[in-house]
C-alpha cells in the first residue's frame, strides 16, 4: 500500500507526464523485485539524463538490502538539483525519511538550496533548525545557500542579518559568500553595500577576483553611475587585476547610457589596444544605444569597425540598425539592411519583421507592410500580437476598416489574443475619424472579452467627443472614468481643457486646470499651451502672459508652439508692443523661435502699419539661419502692398520665384487684391492669368473685387478674358 501512496502522491508534485513510468516501477510484485539490481547496473547518478531515470534509480535504491548509504542518495539529489527539479528532491527526501535513512549535513544543504530556489526561505530556516537540533553545525555552504535564498526572495535585510550571524559565529564567510552578497546587493541596486563588501574581501582574502569587480561595475553602469564605475576600474587595475571583455562591455554600456559617446569610443579603442578582443555583445551594446539616440550614422561607423575586427554581426546587431533607421523615417534603409542580412545567411526573427512592418505602417506604406508580412509567413516565422497590431494600425491609418477587421479576425483565428493596445488602435483611429459611436462599441467588446480599457482608451474617446464639439458627452465620460477604476491623468485633463477652450468656455477650462493642480498632477507643455491659446482666443492676453510666466516658474520650458500661440494671440488682439517685447525676451532666453514665430510677428507689424520694422525683421532671417517659406513671403508681400510699396512687393515676388519658393493660392489672391487696391489692375490681371494657368483659383474676396471692377467698367478690355476665367 505504501508503494501505491508513493506514486499517487508523487503525481501531484511532478505532473502526469511522469505518472505512467512511476506506476511501472512503483507497483511491483515479488516477480519483478529483482529488477532493482538491473537498474543499479544501468544507472549511476552521473549517467542520469532525465527525471524519469532519477526516479527509476531511487525506486531501485530503496529496495536494496541493506539500503545504500546517505552519500549515494545525496549524489542522486545533487543530479536532480542540477536538472532544476527542486520540488522532486524535497519529495524524495521525505520518502527517504520514511524509510529511516538518516540525512547528513550535505543532505540538509541540498534541501535548503531547493527551498531557496523555490522562494521558500521559511522552510529553509526550518531545515536549519532541524540540522542544528540533530547536532550538526551549519557550515559556510549552509549559510551561503541561505544568504542567496534570502536575496532571491528580495529579503535583503534578512540576508545581511544572516551574514552578520556568520561572522559572529564560528562559520567563517568565504570568497563565495562575499561574491554572492556582492552579486545580490548589485541586483537589488545597493551598490554602496556591494562596494563595502569589495573592501572587506580585500582585507580578508586579498584582492577580489575579476568577477566580483565586474559585478559591481555592471551594477553601477546600469544605475547610470558611469564615473563611479570608472573609479572601480582604476582600483581594479591598481590591484593588478586585468579587466576582461565583460568589464569593458559593461563600461561601454554605462558610457552610452548617459550619452558619453566619446568615452564609449575611447573605451572600445582602449580594450582593443590592450589586446582584449571585443565580442559581438560589446559591439551590439554600442550600436543599440547609438541607434536609440538617433545616431544611426555613428552606429554604422561602429558596425564597420566591427567588421574590421572580424566580428560577425548577428540578428541583434541588424535589428538595432533597422530599428534606428526606421526611427528616423528611413524605412527603405531598414529594408535594405534586411536584404543584406538575408544575403549574409542571417535569419531575421519576428522582432526584425515587426520593426519593419510597424515602420512601414506608420509611414503609410501599408502595401509594403503586407508584402513583408507574406515574406515573414513564407519563412516560417510565426507572427505575434505586435505584428497584427501594427498591421491593424496601418490599415486604420489609410481608412481600410474592412481590412483592419479582417486582420483582427485572422489573428483570433491563429489563436493570437488581441491585447489592450490592439483595441486601443481601433478606438483611437475611429475617434480621430469622428466615428465615436463605433469607438464606444469597440470599448464594450473589450470589456466583454475581459480586457480592461486603460486611460489611453478613454482618452481617445474623450478626444473624439471634443473634436466633434460634444462637450456634454466628454464631461460624462470624464466623470465616469474614475468610477471604472481608471483615474484621469494629465492627458485626460488637457484633452477636456482643449475642448472647453475651443468652445470659448474658458471659465470651465481654468476650473479644470485648478482641479488638475490640486490633485498633485503636474500640467505639461500641452496643458499650458492649450490654456494659453484659449485665453488669447477670448482676448485675455494678460492672463495668458501670467500663465506663460507660471509655466516657466514651474520648470516647464515652453516649446516653439507655446511661444507661437502667445505671440499670435498678442498680435491678433492688437498688443504688438507686448508681442515684440516677448519676442525679444524669448531670444534673450535662447528659446527656440522658428520661421513661424517670425512670420507671426512680421504679420503683426504689417497689420499695425509698421512695415519698416517688418522689413527689417524679414531681412534678418538669413542671418539667423532661417529660410522664409511661402507663408512668410505672402505675409511680407501683402504688407508691402498695403503700405503702397508696389515695386518692392513685385521684387519680392520675383525673389521668391528665383529661390524656388513657388507662390500658392494664398500668395496670388493677396497680390491680386493688393494690386487692385493700388490701381494696378493691369498687373493684377496678368497675375490672375498666371494663377489660373498654375491651377489655382480665386477666393471669394478676390472674386468680389473682379465683379466690382466689371460692374464699374474699370477692367481693362484686354483683361476681360482673364476676368471671365476667374469668374
Features:
727 residues, 72% helix, mainly alpha, 42 helices
In short:
By secondary structure, the chain is mainly α. The radius of gyration is 38 Å and the shape is elongated. Mean pLDDT is 85; it is low at 1-43.
Q: Residue-averaged pLDDT, rounded?
A: 85
List low-confidence stretches. 1-43
Count of discrete alpha- or pi-helical segments spanning 4 or more residues: 42
- Termini, distance in Å? 106 Å
Main beta-sheet strand count, sense and barrel state: none
Radius of gyration of CA atoms, rounded to a whole number: 38 Å
Shape: elongated
Number of strands: 0
Approximately how much helix is present in the residues? Answer: over 70%
What fraction of the residues are assigned to beta strands by DSSP? under 5%
What features would you describe in this structure?
This protein has 727 residues and is mostly helical. The chain is 72% helix and 0% strand. The chain has 42 helices and no strands. α3 (35-42) crosses α4, α17 (280-292) packs antiparallel against α18 and α22 packs antiparallel against α23 (385-397). The longest helix has 15 residues, at 191-205. Mean pLDDT is 85; it is low at 1-43.
Strand and helix layout:
Layout: H1 2-14, H2 19-26, H3 35-42, H4 51-61, H5 70-82, H6 86-98, H7 105-117, H8 121-134, H9 140-152, H10 156-168, H11 175-187, H12 191-205, H13 210-222, H14 226-238, H15 245-257, H16 261-273, H17 280-292, H18 296-308, H19 315-327, H20 331-343, H21 350-362, H22 366-378, H23 385-397, H24 401-413, H25 420-432, H26 436-448, H27 455-467, H28 471-483, H29 490-502, H30 506-518, H31 525-537, H32 541-553, H33 560-572, H34 576-588, H35 595-607, H36 611-619, H37 630-642, H38 646-658, H39 665-677, H40 681-693, H41 700-712, H42 720-726
Helix pairs in contact: 1-2, 1-6, 2-4, 3-4, 4-5, 5-7, 6-7, 7-8, 7-9, 8-9, 9-10, 9-11, 10-11, 11-12, 11-13, 12-13, 13-14, 13-15, 14-15, 15-16, 15-17, 17-18, 17-19, 18-19, 19-20, 19-21, 20-21, 21-22, 21-23, 22-23, 23-24, 23-25, 25-26, 25-27, 26-27, 27-28, 27-29, 28-29, 29-30, 29-31, ...
